[in-house]
Design goal:
- This protein starts with 7 loop residues before the first helix and ends with a strand.
- The longest helix is centred in the middle third of the chain and has 33 residues.
- The strands form 4 sheets. Strands 2, 3, 4, 5, 7, 8 and 9 form a 7-stranded mixed beta sheet that branches. A two-stranded antiparallel ribbon has the order 1-12.
- It has one domain.
- It is α+β, with helices and mostly antiparallel strands and 300 residues long.
- 44% of the residues lie in helices and 18% in strands.
- Helix 5 packs across helix 6 and helix 5 packs antiparallel against helix 7.
- A hairpin with a 2-residue loop joins strand 10 and strand 11.
């Protein structure tokens, strides 16, 4: 199997003796912690009138299972840029007793493109943050940015986002190279070669700090200030800019549906959104295609 330079699925699924599979009672405890965190997050958003929506697998779980996907243990949510900026400013005052935030705004030195709201008193390390000693169980917050109405400017915005995102990813790989090579030393040559190749590209951009590339990526993505633009975009999504471009009217209108023992917001036309992402989303995938989560260290 030929591997490219995208490391998301490569490192996530690479076999190594150093990884821990989150299953059974550990998974149940993770889900309980995440559910309470999600309730707290939703309450803050409701209090301040912030838009939020479950997205990705969390939205799928809400619709298909009325809660978590049974074999899943993470939470993904959307926020809009303008409200997210306010959220970053108030998080320590309003939720600092229980949670802290890793984000391009607060911890740019980590180079993490996705904001993560973490539970204090827990530990969770994965391939995305192998050297981060201050990392707990978390909710992923994906920021919906405004996309320019002009097609040419939108295309230019997208190209810049892809470029800065790739540089940031490679530079982060360069900074974590030695640790990742040690973690995945038994995973085979293809995995190790991918780490080395991407780290080499990252080394070409070491003339700037990782935090500088992180801030530039964030600044570029948030450059459109039109809060009424036709489209919103999630540049940090797994499919990147051009496949994470959504009509504002569809993605910024929400409704509440059941999630375990509470009600949480999802995109109002979730059928349209989930079909776009998953096709026949109500059909359970075969067991061998169900996504499993692995971590390097966990204490909860």
């Amino acid at each position: 199997m030929k591997m490219g330079l995208s490391t998301y699925n490569i490192l996530k699924n690479a076999k190594t003796k150093n990884r821990i599979e989150v299953t059974g009672d550990l998974q149940k405890k993770m889900q309980q912690l995440l559910l309470q965190e999600l309730k707290d997050f939703a309450a803050i958003c409701e209090k301040h009138g912030f838009y939020y929506s479950l997205c990705g697998g969390s939205a799928l779980g809400a619709v298909r299972h009325q809660g978590f996907i049974p074999w899943d243990d993470d939470i993904d949510v959307f926020m809009k840029r303008s409200e997210y900026n306010t959220f970053v400013k108030i998080i320590d005052k309003e939720m600092g007793d229980k949670y802290y935030l890793h984000s391009l705004e607060k911890t740019p030195e980590l180079g993490m493109p996705i904001s993560q709201l973490m539970i204090k008193g827990t530990t969770l390390r994965s391939y995305t943050n192998p050297d981060c000693k201050d990392s707990g169980v978390y909710i992923d917050i994906f920021v919906l940015e405004n996309a320019p109405d002009n097609a040419f400017l939108r295309f230019f915005h997208g190209l810049g986002s892809l470029a800065f995102g790739f540089i940031l990813s490679c530079n982060r790989m360069y900074h974590n190279k030695e640790l990742l090579l040690k973690i995945y030393e038994d995973s085979g040559d293809e995995v190790l070669d991918t780490i080395r190749k991407k780290a080499f590209i990252g080394s070409l951009f070491r003339f700037n700090k990782l935090s500088t590339w992180a801030k530039r990526f964030m600044k570029w993505n948030s450059m459109c200030k039109n809060e009424n633009s036709k489209y919103v975009v999630c540049p940090t999504g797994i499919k990147h800019y051009f496949k994470e471009l959504f009509p504002r009217k569809k993605y910024c209108t929400t409704k509440k549906i059941k999630f375990v023992d509470t009600e949480l917001k999802v995109i109002k036309d979730y059928d349209w959104a989930l079909k776009r992402l998953y096709g026949d989303y109500m059909k359970l995938p075969p067991e061998e295609k169900r996504e499993k989560h692995f971590v390097l260290e966990i204490h909860i």
